[in-house]
Amino acid sequence: FFSCLRGWFFSCLRGWFFSCLRGCFLGASDTERQISSDDISSDEDLSSDDISSDEDLSSFGFWWNNNATIAQDTRINHDAFQKVRNMLLAIWATDKNCDKSKCSLGNCISNIDERLKSGKFTFLPKKVKNRVQNPGVVTAPDVIRNFVEVENLTVEQCKAFESSENLLWINGPAGAGKSVILCGRMIQLVQQLNEDNKVVLFKFGGDGNNCQLYQRALKEASVEYQETSTPRLTVTELVTLISESECKVIIVEITYEDVQKLTDTISAVTNCHIFIDDIQELLYYSKTEECSVLMDKLLSLECTVMVVCDMAQGYWSLSKQDLIDRLRMINVKLSSTQLVRLSMSLRNTCDLSDISCVIREQLREIYSEIPDVLDMILPTQLQGHFIHGTLPVMHVFNDYNVTSIMHVFNNELNRLCDELNHSDIGIVTNVASSVLSRVKDSVDMRCVNTDSNIAVCHSEDSYSAQWPAVIVLHSVWDSEERDLTALYLALSRARVYCSVVIFPCEGYYIRRYTSHVTFVT
Q: Second label for 206, Cα 20 to 30 Å away, from 81, 89, 245, 277?
């Protein structure tokens, strides 16, 4: 909204604008005063033909009544609401030549997305002119700037990238740049490697998951790579493929059941550097003993090992005590120099980051009893920049009403499809019910006879995936930990725009005004 308003405002920023605004709206309250020729500035560039008072007031009133509402809530600042209304009317009445395509939702999302992807972020408010001296921001190493196409890093990221540790375990919130560091280090190693050495990247697959960051950067660096997945291969076949591949990089998609296969594979391969993205999925679904064996094996390797993890992203099938045991095990086995913490989210806008910071902090409060490992294993999330975008939209349903849920979903999807390429839109959901089948039908209908598709994926399959615009369909459970981690994972997939639809499971409804969603039959 503010990006659109700002674009319109500056296109109208001429002397006569303020004269017209002052003449028309000072002292206005419930109704607008009709604009007469005396109210129009005598600026030689403006004639009375530029403002059609009756038509403008009538058309604006119609638009306002159909698109703007104010709840009867004592918390609403009615004066501020009225001022916004008057400003919009002034723009409506005076701006005859504005190119509205430049102020559209799609253009706003695309422009902000480019700024975010390139790493052109700032830690200081926009009014500060000398941004090159922002605290905590440094120019990214050449390998990251040239191939990953990120221009700046935080000091935390830069230290992690330049670490000389053989094994580096990087913890950080969604969007903190963990995969950026992993990708840059991979390319750096490949460019420095002996002829026989390779890099093997293990990552999770799924309908929504993608390795576009790695693919694009490797192609940009002219590094040949090969992709495969563990379900199709035995350990022996996988080891043979890695050993015989002529590519310098092998990307292996794994599943949450593969902890033993992963341990056996890295034990058998030689002359390979090992990289693992989003290892938390393995930690959730494996036994503590299995995780401990994997950790010991990684520590015994002489090659470079880099692992990235965020325990706030995922689906917790563990008891609280089991998870605490995993966290303590990681903390005990790794030294303080091997365990790296990132804290600043750089993926999404300041507006989305604000929401994810709150969700993450609520999750941390559940485990406040283990402060000795909490800050390192589940680090807090800080705002990474002040790049604002479109405000997130939240829809909360008290009951499971499929018709109403789909009505809201289709309205949101129509807005995005009218403005963006289909490939820039992601639908992330944790539901597997009649809602999901109707969502897929709606998406398929919009993608007929098009070259690009709208991604629809389960939250559990969305690790590493990200889109400029995301619609989240989230069905709440009766587990606070499970709700928070699933919602955090889904919402953090959006870089610029996010619309969240929250509703209870079928047969339940949400009791309002409670500290957490309560299920009532």
A: 245
Q: What is the pLDDT of residues 485-507, one digit of tens each?
A: 888 888 989 999 999 999 888 87
d(CA 276, CA 225): 16
pLDDT reading at 33 higher than 70: no
d(CA 498, CA 424): 12
Q: Minimal CA–CA distance to 351: which of 162, 108, 172, 143?
A: 108
Pinpoint the alpha helices (H) of 118-197. 142-143, 155-161, 178-192
Helix intervals (H) in 276-337: 280-285, 288-300, 320-333
Per-residue pLDDT tens over the stretch 230-271: 777 889 999 999 999 999 999 998 887 788 889 999 999 988
Strand 425-429, strand 467-476: pairing: parallel
Phi, psi of 139 (to 5 degrees): -70, 135
In the sheet with 272-276, reading across from the earlier edge strand, the strands are: 225-229, 249-254, 198-204, 272-276, 305-309, 167-171, 339-341
DSSP one-letter code for 140? P
Strand 455-458, strand 467-476: pairing: unpaired
Contacts of 372 (CB under 8 A, 6+ apart): 331
The pLDDT > 70 percentage for the chain reads 75
Sheet of strand 467-476, all strands in order from the earlier edge strand to the far edge = 393-396, 494-504, 467-476, 425-429, 455-458
Q: How far apart are CA 494 and CA 352, in angstroms?
A: 8
- In total, the chain counts a number of residues equal to 521
**Phi/psi-derived region of residue 508, left when phi > 0, alpha when psi is between -120 and 50, beta in every other case:** beta
The Cα 202–Cα 244 span in angstroms is 18
Which of the two residues, 18 and 448, has the higher pLDDT score?
Answer: 448
Contact 422/395 with Cβ under 8 angstroms? no
Residue whose tokens read 């969603």 = 517
End-to-end CA distance of the chain: 39
Distance between CA atoms of residues 3 and 37, nearest Å: 32
Question: What does DSSP assign to residue 399?
Answer: B
Cα gap 330→325, rounded to integer Å: 9
For the stretch 46-91, pLDDT in tens is: 444 444 455 566 677 777 777 776 555 555 566 777 777 777 777 7
d(CA 382, CA 354): 9
The separation between CA 321 and the C-alpha centre of its own chain, rounded to angstroms, equals 30
Torsion, CA 360, CA 365, CA 369, CA 374, rounded to 10: 20
Residue of higher predicted confidence among 80 and 196: 80
3-state secondary structure of 504: strand
DSSP-derived 3-state class of residue 297: helix
Nearest alpha-carbon partner for 297 in 274, 322, 327:
274
Tell me which of 145 and 194 has the higher pLDDT: 145
Neighbouring residues of 50: CB distance < 8 A, sequence distance ≥ 6: 40, 94, 96
Residue from 246, 327, 314, 248 nearest 285 by CA: 314
Q: Is the dihedral of CA 73, 74, 80, 86 positive or negative?
A: positive
